[in-house]
Every structure is written in C-alpha cells, then in structure tokens.
User: Fold this.
Amino acid sequence: MLFTSLGYLIFLPAVALAAWALPGRARLPVLVLASLGFYASFGLSHLVALGAVAAVALAAGRRLAREDAARRGAALWAGVGAILALMWALKYHDAAVAALGLPLELGLEAPPGFSFYAFTAIALLADRYRQARALGATPGQELLLLAWFPKILAGPIERAKPFAAQLAQAPRLHPALVAGAAQLIVWGLVKKVVVADNLAPFVDRAYAAPAYAVPMELLLATYFFAFQIYCDFSGYTDIARGSSRLFGIELNRNFRRAYFATSIGTFWSERWHISLSQWFRDYLFRPLLGRRAGPLRVYAAIMVVFVVSGVWHAGLGYGIGAGFVVWGALNGIYLCAERGLAPWRARLAARLEGSPWARVHAILAAIVVFHLVLVSWIFFRAGGLSDGVTVARRIWAALPELPGLVVRYPFTAEHGFLAALVAGLLLCEAAQESRAIRLRLARAPRALRWAGWYAALFALVLIGRWQGESFVYMQF
Amino acid sequence: MSTCSSDQNLKRARPSWAGLGLFAAGFLALYAAAAVIAEFRVARAGAEAPFQRLLAARGAAADWVVLGASHALPLDWGEVPRRLEEDTGQRMLILAETGAGPLYMRMVADQALRDVAPARALYVLDDFAFFDRRWNAGRIEDRALLRLTPLRASTVALLAGAVRAEGVDPRALLDYLTGFSKLNPPERFPAQGWEGEAAFDRVHRPSRHAVRARMEFLYPDGAELAQARPALEDFARLLDRLGSAGTRVVVLRLPVPEAFRAAAPRPPAFEAALSRTLDAAGVPLVDLSAALDVPEFYFDTDHLNRAGVEALYDRHLRELLSDPPETEGG
Assistant:
C-alpha cells in the first residue's frame, strides 16, 4: 500500500477517523495495529523482520532501563549486534557470498524500510544506555516508534524521547491540524508523482545502457536524477509528515531545499536526509572521535562515516556494487576538503559580508556544491562502478562540445516538459527559501490561497504519473 | 495599512471545518467540470478505439462488424470497409483493438449489439490473445484504452459486469467513472509504441530475431491449454451472445508470414478445444493463415501491409464477405 495508491487514500482517513473517534486509551493500540496492518500490506512475512527487531530492542531495552543492572554495556552490544547481524543476513550476506563464489546463500531479502526501523532500534538502545529511565518511553510507545506506519518505509529516523513525549500528550483535533496535514501530503505528492515519477523513465532509459546512450542524454539524465531522487525522497518525507500530523504526531524534517546548500557540510547536516546524518553523527561519528580528537582523527571519522553510509546504500537499490561506496567516499572527500579549506572560506565570507557580492558568492557556492553532489549521484544511480565510470567518462569527453551542441541538439517535447518540471520545482523552492509558500499563501486573500492549492491538486490530476512507482529509499 | 490587511487575511486564513468542506466541494466541482470537458473531447475525438467508433456509429445498422486484435486493423487502414461498400453495398465497422482478446471483444460485441445491431460479425482470430490475462482483463484495465472509452451508461454496466464476474480490477471501473485517465493520459510521451498505421505502406525485411522477440511478447508465459481456458470460455460466450442476437459469425485466421506461423505455438489441445467451441456454436472457421506467403505483403513480422490487404481482399475477402459460409469454411 504505497502512499500513492488508492488503498492509502482510503486507509489513511479511515485510520485517522478511528484514532480520533475512539477513547484516548485505545489510541496507542489502534495506531500500533494500523501500523502493523500497513506494513503487512507489503507482505505478511515482513512482520517477522519487524517483530525480530522489536523483540531485540524491547528485551535489551528493558535490561538497559535498569540503571543498576550489571553489564549494561554487554546488553547494549548484544542488542546492537543482534540487529546488525540481522541486517547483514537480510541485506548483505547473499550478495557477499555470491561475490566470493561460496554456496552459502540464505535466500533472505530485506523487507521494505528494514534499515529505517533497524536504525531507529539501534538509536533506541543507545539512548536507553545513555539515559536509562530518563528516556521515558513505554514498551507500547517503543513498538509504535519502530512501526509507526507513516515513517516505517523510509523514515525520518525518530528518537524515542520526543516521540514518546508526543504520544503521552492528548492531542486535539482541529481544522488547522487537518489542513496542515493535507497541505504537506499534497506538496509531497506533487514532488513524488509530478516531478520524480515523470523524471524517472527518462533517467532509467539513459542509465539502462550508458555505453550506448547519447552523452547529452546522459548529462540530462544525471541532472534529472538529482531532482528525481530529491523529489522522490523528500516527497515521501512530506507525505509521511503530513500523514503523521493527521494524528497529532509531528515527525522531524528530513529535507530543507537541499540543492540550495552553500557547503557540503550544510548539505549533509541541515538539508539532506537530516535524520540519518544526525543518526550517523550521534551513534558513529561522535563515538569514533572520542573525547579528544585531533584533526587527523576527525578526517578519518568523516571518511568512515561516509563510506559506511555508502555501504549501507549498497545493499539494494540501483544494484549492488562498489558504486555506492564511491558515492559515499566522494562525499567524504568533499567534506574533508571543505574542512581543510574552512579558514580561507571564512576569510572570504568575512571580506564579502555586507556587500552585494555576498549574494553572488552564495549563489556560486550553491552551484558548485550542487555539481559536486551531482558527480557523486552518477555513482549512486549507475548500475555498478563500471557503469558509473562509463557515464562520467562519456559526459566528461562531451563537455568541450557542449556549448555548440546545446544549440543544435534535437530537444524533444519530453525534454521540455521535464525541464519545465525541474524549473517549476526550483522556483517554488527558491520562493520557500525566504518564506514558506504555505505561510505566504496563508497571508494571501482566500481566492489566491485556494487557487494555489487547486493548482497543486490539478497538477496531480493532470500531469501526475500515477503508475505505482515505489519510493527509491523504501528499498533500503 | 497593508500589514493590517495582511493580518486580516491571516485571521481569515485560519481554517474552519466549513471552509475545508467548501474547499473540497470546490475541488470536486472543478474536477467534474474538467472531466466533462475531457469526456466531450474523447467522444468527439473520432474513432481511435472500438467504443469511440460505436458511439460515432450509434443508430446506424452495420452489415458487418469486425472483431479481434491487431491483425484485423490493417483491414481498416487498407480501406476494406470502403471497398466492400462500393462492391457489395454492405456496411462494415471495424472494432478490432491491438492486443484485445475474447474478454475485451465480448464487451465490444455487447456494445455493438446495442448500438449497430450487426447482421454479421467477422472475428479475426489471434491465437495469442487466448493465452494471457494481459490480453483480456488486462486490456479492460488498460488506462490507455479507458482513456478512449466514452462514458456511457451501457458501457458502465458492461464494465461493472466484467469487474463482478471476470476478475477485472475495480479500479478500472473507478477510473472509467471518474474519467481520470481522460484527464491524465498514461502515455504522455509514447517513445516506443507499435508503429502500426504509420508503417502500413512499408515492406518488412524478414528477421528471425524479430519473430522470436514478437513471440516472447505475445506469449510471455508460454501457450498451454490451461492458460487459454478462461478466454476460450469468454469466446464461447461471445459467440453464443452474437448467435442468440441473430448475428451470423464467421471466424477468420488472416494470413501471416511462414516464419511467424512456424514460430507460433499452436498446441493441438488448444486447436481441438477451439474447434469444439466453434462446432458447439455452429460457427465456421476460415483459415487463410497460409494464403499469402510472400514477405512483400507484410509491414512487420505478422501484419499485412497495404499491398497485402489489397491482395487479400481481391483474392479472398470480397467473396467471403459477399457470401459467407454457413457452417464450415476452409
């Protein structure tokens, strides 16, 4: 039951009605049952993986909740180890033994969204280890934290304490809540079915056989992929946040107009898949640094985090291979280089501060950051490392001819349509960068406000591509 | 002043339940208006699909209707209806559709009986259309065809029947009722579609690879009798329905190149079951599949080109359509 399916259009209001209509004490069980039902709609057997992760998290968590318990460290590592072992078995084992030519395949496959609730469970155990009882979540709330249906497929990765605090409150149903939820869902759907799913077939065609694709098509496909993956993932997150808000539960923002980032650091920490970046920061980067870390250790920790992130992506998605590792390593190198150049960047920013050139500098920085990320996307999207190298090499070779080619290239109506979608998205995002469109519309007269939302709804009806495309990050 | 006005707007912008209801009602009204416009355009757009053709021909009796999948479409492009009318005065309406099997054609035949009360029906047999759901229920669910199916109460009833009794996805009915595919065409940039009519004047260069690829496309899961049983039952019902309405039916296998014939799986059990179905309905089968074995008569692996249709008409069809066999053909 994808967010873009007719089934979800029925399921979501039905569950919301039930949750609001039933007495407060029935709310948590209803939400847990609805979440399990939602997840089971992708396959009843998936509940086994979810059940295993939940059992480990709850069992180890109970032990960690007792501050006086002996060997709390052992309980933490046993819990985290069990979850990582399950992740290995479901995501990596078969690919690894097949690569080694060993006849030891398990025949297991990770269910949709496995990584997301596995990461949530690891965070839950680590937080329980650090805060013990102060974490405050009950087993029912912890189960919902793992299984909460708006976020189970692709996050955001929530933390136990704020999530449980929201569940403990008694939310009030009011029109603004419903309107806000619906607005987020509509905007997420626009990003997903209007932008991402229309871009996807073009990108798929070009990347299917990069050795034979026209370099201009590869270049356009790479640009389009940057927006496809952004709209696919951030669209999912908006729908997830809107769906959750309908129940009075706020989820974290995971994206903030990522391609307007003026540095690789802010791209990862403040704009792209923020909840995962924070997870890596809290549960990998900081433990790697320890209490007193020198510069070399910082650089090494950055590289470890990004390579691990690449390996995490390599489990599924656009094929299994070293391409994802290269993608992660490239971003790690960018961040290390940026860190190394930080004093010069700071000096330049100080010199430009207050002058009109500061804005030009910001725009140029955003363009550079976008293109650095774009290069890394090639290795993310390509079917493997060799395909990625082929794409990069063919685009690179064609670059000198590009200015002349742009003039005489036989662009089609499809190129125009897709470019218009990207331009429309960028315009909306640029407008949002100063003030949210939702707030702008809220201050506008009703006719204009409604016209804006009707335009979004009719974009869904008229140019949305409703063909049941799954969300890319569901596969992780 | 402007701040004051903006604050007033902000106050008014606080949604109320009534406001949300009004907004939703406004959207539904706009959607309905757009759907009506789209519906009007589909009904007026002409004759791409069988149900559009039937709407356009409604009320005018037809001497012949032609049912079947893509093999029958060249008859239209080669102007067989015009030649038949000139030669014999009989009016022919071609209602074939690419990849449409007996289930889809049963719906078309039902609609044709209401709209044009055909005296005779020529069913152009494409064996592949019996062996896969995609050519039957799948075609009814196909948004590309729903987009070209004008909204009519009689068609709603047929589609609802197919949902109820034939396992057609209810979403197809919902799509049809809401006109969604007419507003949102599923193929915005059809890059690699079947060229069909555009290639009609060409001559195909025979290619084993192309024939093999075509077979894989037409028979994705092979050709076992068990796969064909539901479509055979639909075919029997179709023949029965036409027969009981007084429409005389002739089933025809159109010519295909030898390479295609040789590659097509035609399991004897299927042939026997088909014969039994035809015998039970008292419907003759005219097999012209080997009648034109010259590559120059085809524009692709298995479809007649203009020269092929003209040769077929002159050598076989004119006579067949003027004086169709009563019970047995050959």
Observations:
- The radius of gyration of chain A is 23 Å.
- The mean pLDDT of chain A is 90.
- Chain A has 20 helices and no strands.
- The interface with chain B takes residues 6, 175-176, 178-179, 198, 205, 412-414, 417, 441-446, 449-450, 453-454, 457-458, 461-467 of chain A (CB under 8 Å).
